Amino acid sequence: MSLLEDPLVLGLETSCDETSAAVLRGRFDLLGHVILSQDVHEVYGGVVPELAARAHLQRVDDVVDAALAQAGMGLHDVDALAVTTGPGLIGALLVGVSWAKAAAFALERPLVAVHHMEAHLFGPVLEDPEAEPPFVALLVSGGHTLLMHVPEWGRYELLGETRDDAAGEAFDKVAKLLGYPYPGGPAIERASRGADAGRFPLPRPMIRPGQRAGADDWFDFSFSGLKTAVATLVGTLEETNSLERERAHVAASFQEAAVDALVTKTMRAVDRTRCRRILLGGGVSANRRLRAEMAARLGPDGRVLFASPRLSLDNGAMVARAGLFRLERGERAGAEMSADAGLPFPGLTRRRH
Ligand code: KG4
Ligand code: ZN
User: Which residues have C-beta under 5 Å from ligand 2, the single-atom ion?
Assistant: First the structure.
């Protein structure tokens, strides 16, 4: 089925704990967009997969209806559907995938599968037409930390990734250690404001004196050692009854260490590729300290591209936009399409260091 000039794409996202739908006309016209965060997980200090799947199931109809109502459209006006098929929580993904497959079949409209992390790359372009390749991309979410060179959409040269915890996971785990609510990233950022980020020197994993370009960990990340260092520090502060007084300073010191690791590795990618445009995507890219430090170290002759927080966190608009890209390339999902918790990143190749 061929595609109209500026098709109306319905994007659906249910990979983790946000149920979201968007109605996108062409590349930029976001006519409707609803994001429903599941607060049920706050009680448990992290996402409970079974509860996430149930919550998606209960709300997906209403979320799609609300997005269509914002757009002043009905489901029949939609020209194509795009849905996140992975990576993510399998039960959660299946809700969106089943919904989209059924709707596409009933409406006889084309359907396209979207990779969640590729969708994060498309967040910034919805607001900024200049957020186009080539760029160095740092994708930082609750499940992934990827550093890549993107010469063009669809071609992703992986330079580095995390060897253990993802960046967002580290924010969430450290927040838990410090007694802040889930999700941890925004809580740590808030607590850090006005606190002393230099008070507790914490390790910068995979950044060593004498480390050379070409070393196998030159571009890679690791966050579990940093989390352990915070756990040890918290234990020491508890013993002296000083955790309460120092909590915000620990949060700020952790944020500084995490941001330093992310920015240092990204600047290495800038040097390697000679590409002075950096695109930040994923939930952690909402962090203001990260954005500011990246811009400061890149300097005025470079450009840091990122989306507003709403489009940095999980959302249906980025899925619709990534889906449009895939639809324009002629991709269509068949009846065999399904959710895949470990879906490989399409077009990703490992670049030799
Ligand atoms: O992309 P995202 O919404 O969902 C996943 O794909 O995982 O990212 C969620 C992650 C969580 O770990 C959350 O703590 C983190 O992004 N996050 C932040 C901030 N806002 C969200 N981390 C640091 N600073 C923030 N302001
Ligand atoms: Zn995400």
Answer: 141, 314
